[in-house]
Amino acid sequence: MEANILILEDEIIIARSIKLHLETNGFAAQIATNPEEAVKLLEHRLFDLVLSDINLRHAIDGITFAQQFVPARIPVVFLTAYSDLQTLQKAELVMPYAYLLKPFHKEQLLLTINLSIAHARKKVLPSSIAPQGSNKDITLSAREIEVVRLISQGKTTSEIADMLCISPQTVATHRKNIIQKTKCKNIVELISLAVDKGWL
């Protein structure tokens, strides 16, 4: 099942760009350009993560929105163009799963989202996302771990092949072997396991 992301961003061009990138990489995403829209979406849909700009052109900022309206079970990732100490300290009060400075790399965004969702699901429902069997019995080769790391960054099979200087067929074989060894049903489960095993 694809993860559902709520994007709270008042710059619609940026919001649409993020939405397109997420949907291209297997996520579902909804856009809100102000806190009121975001609250309505939270009331009527189930989200796996909230991706919120901090500096909204609104009476309340993204940090206050997260404090007042985002359920504790939903991880929050903040986006901002500002890195001043006061903003960072205020953001820390919400205990966000991550804090990305604009402009950020799209691969960094995907990795951050995947890790945040994996950590949140493990915290709330650890048994529901754990692959069958014992994690201790799962071992991957060094090359397979490289592939897992690139998968977590949202890389396609072709991109992984180019980066590792191997054929797409070889990458496909590695992916198949990884799934067979880990018994993970989706990328979130795979990343959760990778965090447990120290591969990421």
UniProtKB/TrEMBL annotation:
Q: Does the keyword Chaperone apply?
A: no
Residues carrying 4-aspartylphosphate: D53
Q: Which InterPro entries match?
A: CheY-like_superfamily, Sig_transdc_resp-reg_C-effctor, Sig_transdc_resp-reg_receiver, Tscrpt_reg_LuxR_C, WalR-like, WH-like_DNA-bd_sf
Q: Which residues form the HTH luxR-type domain?
A: 133-198
UniProt KW keywords: DNA-binding, Phosphoprotein
UniProt cross-references to Pfam families, sorted A to Z:
GerE, Response_reg
The Response regulatory domain covers: 4-117
Instruction: Report which superkingdom the organism of origin falls in.
Output: Bacteria
Q: What is this protein called?
A: Response regulator transcription factor
